[in-house]
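Priority: medium. Attachment 1 of 2:
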């Protein structure tokens, strides 16, 4: 009986001990599970932190790019503004020049008209050598003045060219063929002029010659002994003979009196 009670007590103690150990084991498992869950939660939290950090770094990089681009654009805008200001100044300067040109045109056009009229009068009163060409040149100037396709500067250049040509005639020796009306008859002649000093005509058969009197506006017959000199002058002007001295009649101031 005593042994039976003792055995029961031992078995009870063992059962209690086993039961206690089981409870402790369950608590340890719970703790381990809780720690594992904490580690898992911590790992997830770290992943979120890393992700947020990466996003923050990306945003910071983009911000710096935007700041750099903004500074670049600001410098470029300042540069463009400088260019625009310079262009506006140039435009204003060009406009002033254009306005000045328009004012100049208003003064140049009447001047050119006056120059052409003066040239026409001069040619009409001058020694009439190469008269057809000179008269035609004046007529062309008149036509050009009424041509809107020709610029004012080109018109002015043509007028100056005409004056330059007339000026060169004064130092020019030339001979050319033409016709001369004498006693109501047209004769084929060789014309010769030495500047504006001498202007004569000789028949192609070299038997007659005439000299121009610009004061009386008439042709005067030359003596027969002047035919050779007239022929020599014409040949020299045409480069058919070497330059040499020759005699031609010249009306001097004394003879004019």
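Attachment 2 of 2:
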């Amino acid at each position: 009986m005593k042994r039976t009670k003792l055995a029961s007590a031992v078995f009870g103690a063992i059962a209690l001990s086993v039961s206690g150990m089981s409870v402790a084991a369950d608590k340890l498992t719970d703790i381990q599970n809780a720690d594992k869950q904490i580690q898992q939660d911590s790992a997830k939290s770290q992943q979120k932190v890393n992700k947020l950090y990466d996003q923050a770094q990306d945003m910071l990089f983009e911000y710096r790019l935007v700041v750099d681009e903004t500074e670049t654009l600001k410098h470029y805008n300042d540069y463009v503004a400088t260019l625009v200001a310079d262009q506006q100044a140039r435009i204003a300067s060009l406009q002033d020049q254009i306005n000045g040109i328009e004012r100049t045109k208003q003064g140049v056009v009447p001047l050119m008209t006056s120059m052409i009229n003066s040239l026409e009068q001069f040619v009409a009163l001058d020694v009439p050598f190469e008269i057809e060409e000179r008269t035609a040149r004046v007529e062309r100037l008149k036509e050009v003045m009424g041509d809107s396709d020709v610029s004012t500067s080109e018109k002015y250049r043509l007028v100056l060219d005409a004056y330059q040509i007339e000026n060169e005639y004064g130092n020019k020796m030339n001979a050319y063929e033409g016709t001369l009306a004498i006693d109501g008859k047209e004769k084929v002649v060789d014309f010769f002029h030495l500047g504006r000093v001498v202007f004569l005509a000789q028949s192609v058969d070299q038997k007659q010659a005439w000299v121009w009197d610009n004061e009386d506006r008439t042709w005067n017959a030359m003596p027969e002994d002047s035919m050779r000199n007239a022929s020599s002058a014409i040949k020299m002007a045409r480069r058919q003979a070497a330059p040499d001295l020759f005699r031609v009649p010249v009306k001097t101031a004394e003879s004019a009196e």
